[in-house]
């Protein structure tokens, strides 16, 4: 068990992690930008370290500063929360090189699954069913041509990150052209990684997620109890195939889209 953990995030997610650490009697270190000085996560933590100005790319995306903050405070591990550097393979590798535990997937796992377009390719190669979509887009004209082949509506997605950031539903070519540059900028500014792909958008769908977790001490899995036994079993089999794409994967998340 770690005795001190640095949380490389802010806001609600940082507060939730800090509260959990307190229950485990583990000391916490918060980081903050100038805009977040005095925020709740800073007040809750046992220690706090300033990262830089308000802009995310000058503070919460400064991997070297975060690792140095962990070293300076004696934190044994870094919890990235979600968003920001949580799916940045280079950051996970930097933590490992510095002798600091990264609470999340390994750099190798993230390089295989961290970018959505490469995860789609790996899943496709293992016969996992996918919605119609594209590889990484090279231009807005390619996006428009591909969308016509897929059929509108489509969803334009940043390949990096998550949490709904960097996604835009487009109902026609005009909306797609108008969204292209802004979605690309969102991916770059929030996750330090540009690049987008298209996927067929399913309106009025149920989002059912199955997770299978492999850790050093065993395997756990969970599928939504609202599904029938038959659907759960199908989902479990697909999740297992997804996990086997990368030996030793820490976590694989499968999303099943079922029309309402």
Topology:
Blueprint: E1 4-7, H1 11-23, E2 27-33, H2 40-44, E3 47-52, H3 63-73, E4 77-79, H4 89-97, E5 101-102, H5 107-113, H6 116-125, H7 140-150, E6 154-158, E7 167-170, H8 173-191, E8 196-200, E9 205-215, E10 218-223, H9 229-243, E11 251-259
Parallel strand pairs: 1-2, 1-4, 2-3, 4-5
Antiparallel strand pairs: 6-7, 6-8, 9-10, 9-11
Helix pairs in contact: 4-5, 7-8
Description:
With 260 residues, the chain is of the alpha/beta class. It folds into three domains: 4-104, 3-Layer(aba) Sandwich (Rossmann fold); 132-200, Dna Ligase, domain 1; 205-259, no CATH class. It is 38% helix and 24% strand. The protein has nine helices and eleven strands. Strands 3-2-1-4-5 form a five-stranded parallel beta sheet. A three-stranded antiparallel beta sheet has the order 7-6-8, covered by helices on one side. Helix 7 (140-150) packs across helix 8. It is globular.
Shape: globular
The helix tally amounts to 9
Architecture per CATH nomenclature, i.e. the level-2 architecture of the largest domain = 3-Layer(aba) Sandwich
Strand content: 15-25%
Q: Structural class of the secondary structure composition?
A: alpha/beta
Q: How is the quaternary structure best described?
A: single chain
Name of the top-level CATH class of the largest domain:
Alpha Beta
Largest sheet: 5 strands, parallel
* Unreliable sequence segments: 217-221, 247-260
Write down how many β-strands occur, each being a DSSP E stretch of 2 or more residues.
11
Distance between the termini: 44 Å
Output the helix-strand order: EHEHEHEHEHHHEEHEEEHE
Output mean pLDDT.
84
CATH topology call of the largest domain: Rossmann fold
Q: What is the total domain count? A: 3
